[in-house]
Amino acid sequence: MRVGLFVTCLVDLMRPSIGFAAVRLLEAGGAEVYVPSMQTCCGQPGYNSGDRVGARALAAKVVGEFEACDYLVSPSGSCSGMIRTHYADLFRDDPGLLERAGALAAKTYELTDFLDRVLKLAAVPGSLAATVTYHDSCAGLREMGVKRQPRTLLSRVPGLKLVEMTECETCCGFGGTFALKFGDISTRLADNKCQHIAASGADAVVLGDLGCMLNIEGRLRRRGDMKTRVLHVAEVLAGEG
Fold first, then answer.
1. In Å, how far from its chain's centre is CA 163?
2. Residue 241: what pLDDT?
3. In angstroms, how far apart are the furthest CA atoms of the chain?
4. Could you tell me the residue ranges of all domains in the chain?
5. Which helix (H) or strand (E) holds 5?
6. What kind of architecture, by CATH, is found in domain 123-238?
7. In 61-212, where do the E strands start and end?
8. Residue 32 Cα distances to 12, 68, 70, 86, angstroms
9. pLDDT 10s digits, 167-222
10. What is the DSSP letter of 182?
11. Please, are residues 157 and 127 in contact by the beta-carbon 8 Å criterion?
12. 22, 89, 102, 216: which has the highest count of C-beta atoms within 10 A?
């Protein structure tokens, strides 16, 4: 099984450990992992900001890089959601690319969804002696249907205890360019999220999108919380957190 790993821009630039953790998990499930050395962006920032020409060029590049793989997997509900849900809109006037993008979308998965439902990973390499709470990132939850899967996998991590925070499905305030365009609203949402994390009593908050991680961790630190860890689910599962 040849699995293409779409690493994502943020992971590549800000926290490569997530990408390495994803590779370790996919290989633990028996997959042959393919990572194109020249992969860049899925096109989502441009798409959300109205630059459909730029987004379309990037999307066509992604299709060309990964369409020969059996599956495309990303440690991000946001990027995988862009590929699965929005590429059809970008290529609606190009029947050839629309068909190719549709075929790729049909085999595109968010990482925990793929590990749980396709690879059926029964055990994970990682261990973590901590109490954690889980934040459901918007795109992963609403576009990719990711809810049960990360929790199922986390239940297999030795030493880990999962507690649910209040409003775990509510936005953290990131939303890509939303955080830039509507800073005051974004800050209020992030403050609410930080309060719910603190009230849970968890040692760490775990989630599946680096954009949300950066937003939450930045707000926690600005509020004076230097203790609560912010971890990607792949890092926890792979033992690289």
1. 20
2. 63
3. 53
4. 2-117, 123-238
5. strand 2-5
6. 3-Layer(aba) Sandwich (3.40)
7. 71-74, 108-110, 130-134, 160-162, 204-207
8. 20, 13, 10, 27
9. 999 999 998 888 888 889 999 999 999 999 999 999 999 999 999 999 999 999 99
10. T
11. yes
12. 22
- Rounded-to-integer distance, Cα 72 and Cα 53, Å: 23
Dihedral (CA of 107, 111, 113, 116) sign:
positive
pLDDT digits (tens, 9 = 90+) for 29-68: 999 999 999 999 999 999 999 999 999 999 999 999 999 9
What are 206's two structure tokens?
């775990």
Residue among 238, 241, 240 nearest 26 (CA): 238
Cα-Cα-Cα-Cα dihedral sign, residues 102, 49, 176, 57: positive
User: Cα 138 from chain centroid?
Assistant: 10
